[in-house]
Amino acid sequence: MPNIEAIQEALRKQKIDGWLFYDILHRDPIAYRVLALDHAMAKRRWFYLIPAKGKPRKLVHRIEAGALDSLPGEKMVYSAAEELEKNLKKLVRPAKRVAMQYSPKNSIPYVSLVDAGTVELIRAQGCKVVSSADLVQQFEAVWTPEQLESHRTAGGVIDEVTRAAFREAARVVSAGGVVTEYELQQWIIGQFRANGVTADSPPIVAVGPHSGDPHYEPPAEGSSPIRKGDLLLLDIWAKTLAPNSVYYDITWVGYLGAEIPPKCAKVFSAVRDARDAAVHFVLQNVSTGRQIEGWQVDRAARDVIRKAGFGKQFVHRTGHNIGQEVHGAGANMDSLETHDVRRIIPHTCFSVEPGIYLREFGVRSEVNVYVGDGRAEVTGAVQTEILRLLA
User: Fold this and answer.
1) Residues near 54 by Cβ (< 8 Å), separated by ≥ 6?
2) Cis (ω within 30 of 0) for the bond into 203?
3) Is the CB of residue 361 less than 8 Å from the CB of residue 264?
4) Domains of the chain by start residue, with CATH
5) What number of other Cβ atoms are within 10 A of residue 156's Cβ?
6) What is the pLDDT of residues 128-169, one digit of tens each?
7) For 251-283, how does the pLDDT look when each residue is reduced to its tens digit (9 = 90+)?
8) What is the DSSP letter of 140?
9) Would you say the pTM of this structure is higher than 0.90?
10) Is residue 22 a contact partner of residue 42, using CB atoms and an 8 Å limit?
11) DSSP letters along 326-364, please?
């Protein structure tokens, strides 16, 4: 059951008359999570309005009349398109401003799930449609104490698995054996199973030019062997098996040799300094009570990399929200792919992961930052130099 009173309080604070949920064909997963709908028939359109004051109202098709019966509120039904519009006017009246999963000009595409035609339909009822982005963040991205604990538990496992994976690669290479990117990836997945964590997709294991591809996926056939003299990048994320657990997500790099090549060291230093600048920006502003937005964190990291001469090689946002999905529904640290103006709010977590991607290799360094009440923290180990994996 959704927390109607808390949603209404948030609506009043934002001076929004209601939050209007809409779906067909299960296109809006946010609606199902916020409304705690395990399943609802959605072969026809349904609408659910939580007003800032008063009781919720719902509109469903006659042949799917029970679709929203688990939710409180008065129910209206429709069959014909004319009846839909007539009852939709009753549903939203007298609201003047309603929030929907919409973002002007699709500026935050992760929230903008309602189609343009439906937005036009609501506007035709005399309502201004505004973005629900901050509401979604408040009711989707905020962690409970139990979720924070699950994150820390997963972090302890992942930090150790990451170190062990580097040791495993070094062991095989130093013994004259061969292990491919894919084989090391599968070894890591085996460690997940052994240690009670899980992930929605396999980790990234990349050497050489593949480490210059931010979303490289080692294939079962044809992935590169890991050799002496390679820079090895591991991007590993997972969560515990507990219900409602949240992810921990990190990236480290190691070198299969005793002496780090100067170019690798230079690139890592720029990435590390950018990461630390973004983290410092968050920690300082949260501690002083200054409100900050996602794009500002990205800018703090991006400016460092630009000044180091690698601006064009930093091709993605600085970080993403973390939740029950590894890419959560809260603010992203982004002034590149989007201009994310969502506020960074208490009890949310996000990655800080700047990277520099060259033709011959790439470097990324990723930590997780949790924002509490008046303070923020990096929740796991922090890499300060490229790991030397061979003596």
Assistant:
1) none
2) no
3) yes
4) 4-138 (3.40.350.10), 142-388 (3.90.230.10)
5) 15
6) 999 999 999 999 999 999 999 999 999 999 999 999 999 999
7) 999 999 999 999 999 999 999 999 999 999 999
8) I
9) yes
10) no
11) SS-SS--B-SSSS----B--TTEEEEE--EEE-SS-EEE
